[in-house]
Amino acid sequence: MTSPTPDEDLLAIFDTRMRATAEPDEPGARVEHADGVRRQIGAHPTDWHGVLYSDLDATTADAAIQAQIAHFRTLGTDFEWKHYRHDQPADLAQRLQAAGFVADDPETLFVAEITQLSGAGQPGAGLSEALPDGISLRAVTTEADADLVGEASEAAFGSGGDRARDRVLARLADDPETVWTWLAMAGDQPVSAARMLIHPGTGFASLWGGGTAPQWRGRGIYRALVARRMRVAAGLGCEYLQVDATDMSRPILERLGFRALSVTTPYEFRV
C-alpha cells in the first residue's frame, strides 16, 4: 500500500478536479465560468442550480456575488452558493449573508483514497457489505424502484422524496445501462437509498444519500452502502471517494478511513 497523500495536497486535488474544472453532475445540466465563479445550471426547475467554486479576493468578492444574484434572477430560479471553509476571502460567508443568502446546515467534506481503504491488495477489501438480518441491497433500475427511492428519502429525512425520485428517473433516462443508485430493503419496505456519481477525468466518485429510516439506524446499513459503492467505483478505475457528511455519518466514515478536509455550507438565495 502506498503512503497516504497529505491532507493539504488531497484538498488541493479535490479543489482543482472537482470544483475549479467541474463538469455537470446531472443529466442536461451545464457548467459555466463567469465573474470569478464556476456555476451549474440545471436542465429542469427541480435540478440543482448554483455556484460550485469561486476564485475571489476581498476586492472582487462583492461584485461577483451581485453578478450571480443578477444572473439567477434573470433565469428566475433560486440558487445555492456552495461555500467551503477554506474559500477566499476569509470573510466570504459573511459577505454572502450580507447580500441576502441564508445558510443551511454545514456538512463535513470527507475524501478517501481508495488504495488506503485496501486490504490484501484488493481495493476495498477492508470494507464489509454485511447487513443486519432482514435487510437486502438491490440496484435501482426501474421507474418502480425510483418510487421506492422517494419513499426511502421521506423515511430517512422526512422530506425530499419527490426530488430524489425525479433525480433517479432523469439518471435512468440518461444512462439506463448503468446502476448509480442502490436501495436497502426490509422485505418490500425501503429503509435507505444511496447514489453515486462518477466524475470522468477526475479520478473521483462522489457518494450521496444513505440516510436510513430511524428504526434501522446503527445496524451497519450505511456502512454496507458505502462499501457497495466503493467497490463499483474501484472497478471503474476511480482513485478517490468524496462525501459531504452530517454529524451522524461522520464517525462511520472516520472509522472507514475517510479524512475530514473542510466544512461546506450551502448558502441559499431566493430570487
From TrEMBL:
InterPro entries for this protein: Acyl_CoA_acyltransferase, GNAT_dom
Membrane-spanning segments: none
Limits of the N-acetyltransferase domain: 135-271
Protein name listed in UniProt: GNAT family N-acetyltransferase
Lineage per the UniProt record: Bacteria, Bacillati, Actinomycetota, Actinomycetes, Catenulisporales
